[in-house]
Amino acid sequence: MCGLLLLSVVNGWSDEPAQMGGHHHHRLVSPSSEFMQQSGPVEPQFRLAMPKGWRFTIPTGDHHAGRQVFIDFECFKCHEVAGEDFPAPKAEQGDVGPALTGMGPMHPAEYFVETIIDPNASAMWRIKHHSEENKGYLGADGRSKMPSYSDTMTARQVIDLVAYLKSLTAGGEHIHQH
Q1: Is the pLDDT of residue 39 over 60?
Q2: Range(s) of the domain holding residue 153
Q3: pTM over 0.70
Q4: Domain with 42 in it: what CATH number?
Q5: pLDDT band at residue 113, thresholds of 50, 70 and 90?
Q6: What is each CA distance from 46 to 49, 57, 82, 106, 153, in whole angstroms?
Q7: Residue 177 is assigned to a structural domain of this protein
Q8: Is residue 134 part of a domain?
């Protein structure tokens, strides 16, 4: 199911990350409620249903449910969130993933979706535009150490997790969007 989300995000993707509010001038679409209730993989005909040039928008998620997704998938093992009582990432792991405190206002929701279901897309952008950075987020093969969750998270879980990530502000406070 997350494949449609990725295809939709990639359809509007450019070499640069979207700015707040988006720099794409494509018609915005959201999935139907019937689609959101589906379980299992998306059939190919649904993947091809989005007209070229359209950009997917993320439906409103539940940041409380997204926090639970963060816990259930143990995202805290690689990503620190200041102000939360998650176990800290283990020091011997090094910088597996970036700290997420303050990330909410820094990226559009579509960026977070892409990072969750295709971590290599954002990793490749970082390599191209910030090659001087060596944070340890990439494996020896040059690919992101973060696994893809396209086959393990439902669309609802991704949407709720994105709502949680968007709520993370600097200083550990959370923006509670409804």
Answers
A1: no
A2: 2-172
A3: no
A4: 1.10.760.10
A5: very high
A6: 5, 16, 39, 31, 18
A7: no
A8: yes
